[in-house]
Amino acid sequence: MTDTTSEFFTAAVTLAPAEPEHFDLAFTAVTQPCPWPKAYGGDLVAQAAAAAMRSVDDGKTLHSVHSYFMRPAEIGEAVRYEVELLRDGRGYATRQVRGYQNGKPLYVCLANFAAGEPGGSWAAPVPDLPGPEELPASADYLAGRSGGTMTDGSKAYWSSGRSFDMRHVPGPVYLEVDGGRAPHQAVWVRPFDALRPVDGLTDPQRDAAALAYVCDYTILEPVLRVLGLAWAGPGLVTASLDHAMWLHRAPRPGDLDGWLLYAQQAVAAESGRGLAEGRFFTPDGVHLATVLQEGMIRAALPGGAG
User: Fold this and answer.
1) What's the N-to-C CA distance of the chain in angstroms?
2) Which residue from 56, 45, 65, 118 is spatially nearest to 93, judged by alpha carbons?
3) CA geometry: angle at 195 spanning 166 and 15, to 5°?
4) CB atoms within 10 A of CB 140
5) What was the pLDDT predicted at 118?
6) Is the pLDDT of residue 304 over 80?
């Protein structure tokens, strides 16, 4: 792999069929490299979404995924996804997916699929923000910078190891809260190169999995921002607790190979947990998806509070 490639994502959502042990279908997938003690949560969401999509063959498309993270996943190890076919109706279908590693359940989700039907259409307006070409890539922002708990490994990962170029408005929260402690931010995201085909998934299904994959990287950042916390701050520990994603519109061909705006805001922070919302828009204003995630946030707050 080159330093800047989207292949980490496509490797993550490439599933191998397996014999089911608990439910109707089973697949295995391998979590991807990262410099933390636990695997990236978006691996699990995207892999489970891919497993659920591979169980639906009548043209219905994924429109929502609701997840709980129960245990951390080991990096570079296979996760076994068991799919239960809960319902196949005329308009909707529902799947339960459980992820197992070392014989223990670590992730569970419900995924719903829709056939689609005529109806009204409305979408929230796209925020008016600087475009990606006006902003530094993570690699450019981090070049020559150091501090906190950032290592060479975490710097390389933030710069090029996440499959997607990410450009923050007003600024990142890698080493400090760049841009102030407002409860909102936005991130322009684009794969480093064109997304590759994925065995077992159509291109539209792969693109839906890509949204599920990339959404988890930065969704807690508006909560970190409003609390004055940076990723490289001493003692910071975060973990995904639960996650919901609604896909309002299917991405058009090529949408996921170009820039998407991920507008985010903090909803609440209390008792070591934070909730944030994010919305994905195409540059021409199409609202593709909405995300809500609650995460554990453990840190000594600035000024000695917490």
Assistant:
1) 42
2) 56
3) 110
4) 11
5) 87
6) no
Cα angle 53, 221, 191; round to 5:
50
What distance in Å separates the CA atoms of residue 20 and residue 67, rounded to the nearest whole number? 21
pLDDT tens, residue by residue, 263-291: 999 999 999 999 999 999 999 999 999 99
Q: Report the C-alpha gap between 250 and 241 in whole angstroms.
A: 26
Q: Which run of H or E residues covers position 236?
A: none
**What distance in Å separates the CA atoms of residue 290 and residue 279, rounded to the nearest whole number?**
4
Q: Please name every residue paired with 82 in a beta bridge, in sequence order, or none if there are none.
A: 26, 98
- Residues 98, 111 contacting (CB under 8 angstroms): no
- What is the rounded distance in angstroms from the CA atom of residue 47 to the CA atom of residue 264? 23
Rounded Cα distance, 231 and 233, in Å: 6
Beta strand residue intervals within the chain, DSSP E: 16-18, 25-30, 61-69, 78-88, 92-101, 104-114, 164-169, 184-191, 237-247, 260-270, 273-281, 287-298
User: Regarding beta strands 61-69 and 78-88, do their DSSP bridges make them parallel or antiparallel, or are they unpaired?
Assistant: unpaired
Whether the pLDDT of residue 302 is over 70: the answer is: no
87-139 pLDDT, tens digit each: 999 999 999 999 999 999 999 999 999 999 888 899 888 999 999 999 999 99
CB 273 within 8 A of CB 203: no
Token match 């975490």: residue? 154
Cα atoms in the 13 Å half-sphere on the side-chain side of 263: 18
Amino acid identity, position 173: V
pTM, two decimal places: 0.95
pLDDT score, position 2: 44
